[in-house]
Structures are given as structure tokens and as C-alpha cells.
Specification:
Length: 203
Amino acid sequence: MTAVEPASNRPATCGSMPVPRVVDFITVKRNVALAGRSYGHWWIEFDNDESYGWWPSHSVRLDQLFRGLPGVLNGIGLHPDAKPTRDPNHGLPADFEFHPVLVEDHTDEHLRNSIRRFAGSFEGGWRWSTRQTMNCRMFQLALFDAVGLVDGTGNYHTRGTGCPALAPIRRTFGRLSGRRRWPLNLPHPGQRIALPPHDTPAR
């Protein structure tokens, strides 16, 4: 007689595809922020012709960097190459690129539609802060939460270390304590996104 593994010990399945599983048709792209040069940008691409990222609605003045301004999907109205289903950086190389991991029992088509639905209905601001506020990074992580994706083991380092201007403080803390100080403006791996009311996606 062949032993049957208890259902609780078997992976969930999505048709003939078990989960968790790597989603090869989605590429996560993350550019790191560089002090004095770039705010960085995070976006996702799938099926070679569709992509989503979160942008400020217009050019950012220094006083708006931390005070904030309205955000917009894919830089619509800001960038000439922006389209509702295509980020202006689509196809460009990024500092980090990887395929995410699906941890919920969804078909590929359900996953595609969930991403489109989340991105198309999202509303929020855009700003940098020492706490968790909406920008391209938090948009991507909130999207992951909503559709059942995670970075996957070995990819969490692509989230970076936080504001580049505070890098010397983090390095000093690390040398003195021997521990990594996770940036306060990003959730820890496995922690779900808790957005302020004004940064909550529309329903």
C-alpha cells in the first residue's frame, strides 16, 4: 500500500501547478535611490508588454519631497511615454530584477487580472519619509499583498537599506551593534502593508 501524505503537509495546488511557485512571466524591477541623483523607482513587468509603477503626478520640488504630492499610476501626465498599462521605464534594465513567488492558489490569468484591477483602482499620494508612506516602493509591496505575491527567499536584499542620506547613520549603527538596522520606511519581510487612510487604494 502506498502511503498518502496528509493534506495539511501537501502544497496547495493551482490546477497542475503547486504553490508557492515562481511566476516566470512577471519580472520585478527595482532601482535604488541615490542621494542627490535619483529617487529610485520600482515597477513590475509581465507578458513583455504590460507594466505598473507609481509616480509623483508632476516634477518634485525639494519642499514636496517630504511633504508629499498626489501620486499617479505609470506617470500619466508626467512622462511622455506613460500609458495606463505601461510604465515609462518598461523594458529598461534595473539595478535588481527577479521573478516573484506566488503564495496563494491562483491561476495565471487570475493573477494577471488581479494586478490590473489593483493598479487601475489605486489612489494615493507620493512622498519620501522616515516612516512608511506611499511611493513606488510601497505601491509595489501593497500590490504584492493584494494579489498573493512575495519577493521570495534571496530577493529581500533588493529592497535596499532606506534613505541614502541616512546611510552613514545606518553603517555606524551596524558597526556598533553588529546588527542590521532595517529601514523604518519599509515593512519587514513578511509584514503586511498598513497604509495611512489617505494612502489607501480605492475600492
